[in-house]
Amino acid sequence: MVKLMLALDVMDKNKALTMVDEISKYIDAIKIGYPLVLSSGLDIVKEIKDKTNKEVICDFKVADIPSTNEKIAKLTLNYADGIICHGFVGRDSVEAIQKIAKQYEIKTHHKKKVIMVTEMSHPGAVEFMQPIADKLAEVAKILNVDGIVAPSTRPERLTKIKKIVGNIPIISPGIGAQGGELNAVLDILGEDDYIIVGRAIYKSENPKESAYKYSMLLKGHNG
Ligand code: NUP
């Protein structure tokens, strides 16, 4: 069944905690990015993990030299189940994060996911990212990362990228606020894949109801 990852991009710690309290039963995973961590501190990752016991992925789109990537991964994966990084900086930078993830896995016996961005979902991604996205997807496959990010806003691109990465799980943003349509991507994605939904849940009048609706649509599709 396609899974639901909440993008928890609120900028208030209490709001974040109340939100996950209300809706965590309808979602499979929680994605925490800069808006929440920069407003609340990195400890929010542990707090949300402890509170929900859901998979927590840090969307830090790490894009630095290997030694700096290592430091960022060390701090992040101490609590998070996964980290999102960029691949355009080169495979050594991604491998540096994979090395840290492996170390944590050995130490904690818990899976730590390294997820690589291929093509982003916003309109501007066609300018520089789309021309290299297929190549990035090939690199993701060679590096055997634990997941890739590909856009729900462009189902034809999602299809192409999925074909390249094969059985590597896809984490796909763009449904709802960015105009992507759930029905257009549900036939492309498979049971190991996720859709990411942020504003269409946390900014809706009734986040609990919205999360429930998405979870039901995913369930309905999967029968
Ligand atoms: O290509 C990407 N597009 C994207 O929207 C890669 C991402 N990581 N995201 C993130 O997904 C974005 O930063 C936000 O956290 C979430 C989508 O949120 P929303 O558009 O559903 O509110």
Automatic annotation (TrEMBL):
Assembly and oligomerization: Homodimer.
Record gene name: pyrF
SMART domains, sorted: OMPdecase
Organism per entry: Methanothermococcus okinawensis (strain DSM 14208 / JCM 11175 / IH1)
Family: Belongs to the OMP decarboxylase family. Type 1 subfamily.
Catalytic reaction annotation: orotidine 5'-phosphate + H(+) = UMP + CO2
Enzyme class label: lyase
Domain Orotidine 5'-phosphate decarboxylase as annotated: residue spans: 3-214
Pathway: Pyrimidine metabolism; UMP biosynthesis via de novo pathway; UMP from orotate: step 2/2
Annotated protein name in UniProt: Orotidine 5'-phosphate decarboxylase
